[in-house]
Amino acid sequence: MTPGQIMMGLKEKAVYLISGGIDSPVAAYLGIMRGWEPLFVHFDNRPFIGENELEKAKLAAARLVEFTGTEAELLLIPHGRDLELILTKCRRNLSCLLCKRMMYRKADAIARAEGCGAIVTGEIIGEQASQTLHNLILNTSVAESQVVRPLLGFNKTEVEEIARRIGTYPISAMKSEGCSAASIKARTLARSHELEKEELNLPLRELVDVGLRDAKRIRLP
Q1: Which CATH superfamily is domain 3-219 in?
Q2: Considering the entire predicted model, what is its pTM?
Q3: Domain residues of the chain, as ranges?
Q4: What are the distances in angstroms from CA 165 to CA 24, 61, 160, 193, 208?
Q5: The predicted structure's pLDDT at residue 10
Q6: Which residues, in sequence order, are CB contacts of 40 under 8 Å at separation 6+?
């Protein structure tokens, strides 16, 4: 069965979190090929990340649309203010976890508003502190929607092979700056009560509402 034939049978819709990295476009491809119609969501972390990270995410999403023959939109969600507040008001070694939890809150709100049955991510176990198996559970505990991780048991070589085959690898491999808000001595085994205590310093509901209100919707070709 070809990608185009798969697309003709799409019935369910999912939020696909997509960054400028290698993993998330591959996870999105696998989800689309399972028959889940895509709504791509990119969290804009500027000024804590380079300008070209946003462009890479746009190009990767467009390439997936071209390769699979589907139609899709890309939502650009502002996330820079969230990071600024996390860095100034919360413990530095928890910043990546707190950032991910805010992303999941926003993704969950988008999924419910857009009628999406799941959130699809490119997370791989052990890739970084926020992606240890223990911390992945803490990340998603703030979301009501089902979270699907197609790459959970993959290794980097397997992911890169798929990325090369579907044509997203050259885009993801383009040079970009790392996130300057990354945790210092990040906690690999955080505790739920630690995160909840730090989140008392943040206007969680406001950040979700503002993120969705200021989202930019792009129709992909």
Answers
A1: HUPs (3.40.50.620)
A2: 0.91
A3: 3-219
A4: 15, 15, 9, 43, 36
A5: 55
A6: 16, 18, 28, 57, 61, 64, 72, 73, 74, 75, 220
